[in-house]
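REQUEST FORM: STRUCTURE PREDICTION
Request ID: SP-0412
Submitted by: Lab K.M.
Chain count: 1
Length (residues): 83
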Amino acid sequence: MVTRHISIEIPESILIAEKTDEVSFAKELRVLAAVKLYEMGRLSSGRAAELADMSRVEFLMNLGRYKVFPFASELNDLESHAA
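STATUS: Completed
RESULT:
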């Protein structure tokens, strides 16, 4: 798998306020980005899990933590085809 490195600058005050370090914060940002992109329908659950660096099952099981319904897009598809 080919990967790309993306760099963003984070003010130290954010890390201090969050009581975290760069590595932990970067991992959390990846998960948050994956969850949001999945919620918006821009990534499938498999691709979002890949971005979050976890298995698909683990990703889906963690969505409740962010108040995101794991199968919203599938439910929407079913509802649109039933109408």
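NOTES: Residues 19-82 form one domain.
Reviewed by: T.R.
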